[in-house]
Each structure stands twice: as C-alpha cells, then as structure tokens.
Amino acid sequence: MIRRLPQDSQLSHDTNGEMADWSRSDHLLAITVDLLGEIQWAYSSVHGEEKPTRPTRIPRPGISDSEVLVPAASNADIAGFLMS
Asked: Cα(26)–Cα(6) distance, rounded to whole angstroms?
C-alpha cells in the first residue's frame, strides 16, 4: 500500500525532503536544458568574436552545485573537441 502512494504525498515529502518536489522527468528535462546551454556556450566560445559567460545550471531541489559529479571542461578542451 505504501509503495503506491503518489509522489507528492506527505510520506514522500517526509522521507525524501525537497527531492520529492521533482519527478524523474523534471530532472531529465533540467539536465537536457543544461546540456543545450553548455553546447551553445561551447560553440560560441570557439566560433564567436566575444567570449560568452558560461551558463548557470538550473537549480535542483536537494542538490547543491558542489555535489555535481561532472567536472567542467576547460575552453581548450572544448576547442580541441570541436575542431577535431
């Protein structure tokens, strides 16, 4: 019975905290938007005349920026990848 409780139930909020506010689809959509921003930034960094500012991540509930496991690539790494 407990397994079938909706994601927005009080029990889910009590056990998962802020993480209960977002569904798996919400997290995947945020990742997609973040990656598209990074791709656009990388392309503009290599091919643009001005250096654009790196986009900020969409904040996720319960996850701080210091907990992100993917290290940021340097401009040289991105340029090398895009030029190859």
From this structure: 16
Q: Of 76, 84, 81, nearest to 51 (Cα)?
A: 76
Based on the structure, what is the number of domains in the chain? 1
Separation between Cα atoms, residue 19 and residue 63, nearest integer Å: 8
pLDDT digits (tens, 9 = 90+) for 25-36: 888 999 999 999
Structure tokens at 37: 């921003």
In a domain, 8, yes or no: no
Paired residues of 15 in beta bridges = none
Is residue 78 within 8 Å of residue 42, measured between CB atoms? yes
pTM above 0.85, yes or no: no
